[in-house]
Structures are given as structure tokens and as C-alpha cells.
Amino acid sequence: MYSLGTLPSFVKEEKLLNAIGENIIFADENYDIVWLNSSAVNLLKKVISLFDVDSVEDIIGISMDHFHKEPAYQRELMDPLTTSHKARINIKDTYITDIVINPIKDNDEVKGYVVMLMDVTTKAQEEERKENLIKELSVPVMDIWEKTVAVPLVGTFSNKRIDFVILKLLNVCKEKDTDYLLLDVSGVTELIEKTGSQLEKMITALNTMGTEVIIVGISPKLAIHLKNYSFNAKFISSTKEATKYIMAVQDKENRTEKVLEENF
């Protein structure tokens, strides 16, 4: 690997490593810690006492083994390491972080290691994030009328989520022989560039199954975002009005069927 260009003369290595904004630790070939950047110092000040070390200044010279429950297992990972190693770790049941370890080589000989602690969160924050993700991935489906289901979408409308939602809704509509799907988007909290095309993809798939899609809860922000799309769906202001519409259509269809039966 090689870099490109020339660093400005005023950019020193230590200044650069401090400016990155990630927690960076250097260890020598024996796994002894030799340097921490300012972000790592500030992070370790919060947790260093959990490792029976008096102050963050005392960490210099300490082996990385000291910070692992199973040092022997950690060395089994590190000794043959030739490329980047990444894992999600728990720091004393207090912080959760991604750890990235890269060997530093000189003439193919490992001279030390760069350790980066990234996306550091408290355990409580991590649990909250997981809970929010579960909520977003959960798609409650409610039977509200004959052959009619309602689905509230909540959270971020991402690429991964849309595929999950489409698959679930297609299966539900097939199982329930659904004629109408009421899609409530009032809970969509974040829009991405492809939100419009994702909604179009979902509606097209449902139409193919013979299900009419009715969308309620469009916010002004979402309306502006979707103005250039042509959806084969009906937009109604509220769930109450959408339900009235469905009931009226089904009542008309039932009366038409009754007339046809009487004529034949």
C-alpha cells in the first residue's frame, strides 16, 4: 500500500493522528502500549480505573494483555495477524466499541500495532440503539376491516428495511387475501435520497399481488420529497377517512355483485 501526494510541512504526524477524531493507540511488537492520541486519552480516563490502573498516564508500558479477559486467546489472534482485524467488544460491561487492529510492518516484519477504538457508546446507549433497530424492523400488521390491513411505518426508511417490509407485506397480503392495504407513513422520521423509489417499489409489488395501496399520514416534508413520483396508490389525509373510503368501495362492490346474482 502507498499514499499519494505530499503532506504540508506544518502537518506533523502527532498532530495528524490527534486530528482524526478516533481513539488511536500504538503498541510495540511485544504488545506493550507506547502512545495514545488525545481522543484515546480522554476515553481511557473514563474507564482506566476499571482495569486496576491508577491513572491514564500509567498505561504507557502496560501490555495489551492486561485489558483482555483471555490474553492467550488474544495473542492467538494477534501473532499471525497480517491484515486488519475488526471486532465489536464490551469494555467492562460499561462501553461498547468497534476495535480495529492493524500491524505496522517494516520489510514484512511486524514492528508494532495500531489499535483504533471506533463508534464508542455506553452499554445503555447500545441497548437503546438495538431496541430502536428492533422497533424499526418490526412491522405491525392490523386487520381493520374485511380484506383490509393497516401497516404503520415507523423510523428510518432505509434500503435494508424496505426489502424486509416488502417481503413481509407480500406474504401477509397473500395469506389474508388482502384487497386493501392502508399504509400509514406518519411515523417515518428520516428520509433518504431513495425513499421515493423505495415506496414506488413497494406499491408496485403490492399492486402485482392485486392489493390496492392507500397511503395516509403524509407530512409536508415527505410530500415535497415525493412530488416527482407517480404512485399507483390513493393518498388520503387520515386513517379514519381511508377506512370510510374502503367501506364505501366494498359496499358498492357488494351491491354490484348482488345485482349480478339476481340477474343471473
From TrEMBL:
Signal peptide: none annotated. InterPro entries: Bact_StressResp_Reg (IPR051932), STAS_dom (IPR002645), STAS_dom_sf (IPR036513). Gene3D superfamilies: PAS domain, STAS domain. CDD domains: STAS_RsbR_RsbS_like. It comes from the Bacteria. Residues 146-235 form the STAS domain. This is RsbR, positive regulator of sigma-B. It comes from Halalkalibacillus sediminis.
